[in-house]
């Protein structure tokens, strides 16, 4: 049994049966992190002692004859935007350097109660502002498929940890595509649940009306099992839905698309999309049709304006949320030498603690909310948001799910778009509409480019119909693995081999 390449479902079954201990499984993944993370930089911190203690506790419960959950004893990588009591939590920012939260996020608590072992916290764009994990104050994460390329963002650390076999499970958060875009770039599975379907309590807020934690893994079933663990109503989150978790695990095991109406969104393609990405998308749609799905074309004309609306709504909410980081209560404090006023210390600390992209969005958001401009900018963006929601309603009257490429291109090079914010923002063309509308969406691996880089297939479902995502994903996964002769991730290069590229040698 190759522990680090096994699925979470298989590992959990072996642990429960006593064939392998959780401590052994956890130790294998910690050793893998030690062997390859200097190249990948998926983790910001690794809690070795805590992880082994959690694993030992699971083993003790099993030895005592206790029934454990379906993922008990399986390791996981946690995005560093979710709090974990006593563990450094930075949101990828210097402004929170050294902060150890006194409480667990609800997602964290549910993981620990389910016996999932948290290995550590993963790298991310600062405060989840970015599409490449290059905006982290602690350095970029590198794509395990090609270390000269980005793993996507903002949750590139979680996706890269999966693709590098450092963890079989991960948690991300998705504000405009931060789970799905990294999944596409790394050949992994990433799901954005219905807004309110997974609690945001303990997630360091970027844009409160858009943020959504969600599950990430290497297989559709593993992702569904994780979704079931973290989902469900939470009274600590006022936006949490008082509804049961959709039957995602059953859907992942079933995976039948016969008779399912799949809507191809006319507006999510064409100019700006790489020819290989479009060709792969259309081939994937044809594959689903061959499995019995009914394919229809739908139009969502207001999706054209979603990107512009999003980049007014998000900065506006970020400007408000990030005002709390004032250097007075926790985190970085600069210039407090007794000669400066409180306001001067705040200004110096925020100048030193926030990166360029965060400052850019705070400025945009503050301007959009300022007197005389709020209605013209933020108010107009909210009207567009309503139109996007109406487009979804109309489209879902004709189709059970909607589909598109996850991203217009495969992973781009490190540094390639860092100085061009607009080019970076365009990565999220396909993913942003679902955040504006609040419905569920996912990215599933669908193939490789001629350069050997992964491509993702994007599936969108109505509110609280998250199970439909898993129906499509499971059917696609089985069909493609039959064609590929195994999982796509079997083709990732050996990261323990000596450096072979100039980029690797330079690092």
Automatic annotation (TrEMBL):
Residues 24-469 form the Amidase domain. InterPro entries: Amidase, Amidase_CS, Amidase_dom, AS_sf, GatA. Gene3D superfamilies: Amidase signature (AS) domain. Heterotrimer of A, B and C subunits. Its EC number is 6.3.5.7. Keywords: ATP-binding, Ligase, Nucleotide-binding, Protein biosynthesis, Transferase. One of its GO terms (biological process) is translation. GO terms for cellular component: glutamyl-tRNA(Gln) amidotransferase complex. The gene is gatA. It comes from Raineyella antarctica. The keyword Ligase applies. This is Glutamyl-tRNA(Gln) amidotransferase subunit A. One of its GO terms (molecular function) is ATP binding. PANTHER family: GLUTAMYL-TRNA(GLN) AMIDOTRANSFERASE SUBUNIT A, TRANSAMIDASE. Belongs to the amidase family. GatA subfamily. The active site is at residues 79, 154, 178. It catalyses: L-glutamyl-tRNA(Gln) + L-glutamine + ATP + H2O = L-glutaminyl-tRNA(Gln) + L-glutamate + ADP + phosphate + H(+). Allows the formation of correctly charged Gln-tRNA(Gln) through the transamidation of misacylated Glu-tRNA(Gln) in organisms which lack glutaminyl-tRNA synthetase. The reaction takes place in the presence of glutamine and ATP through an activated gamma-phospho-Glu-tRNA(Gln).
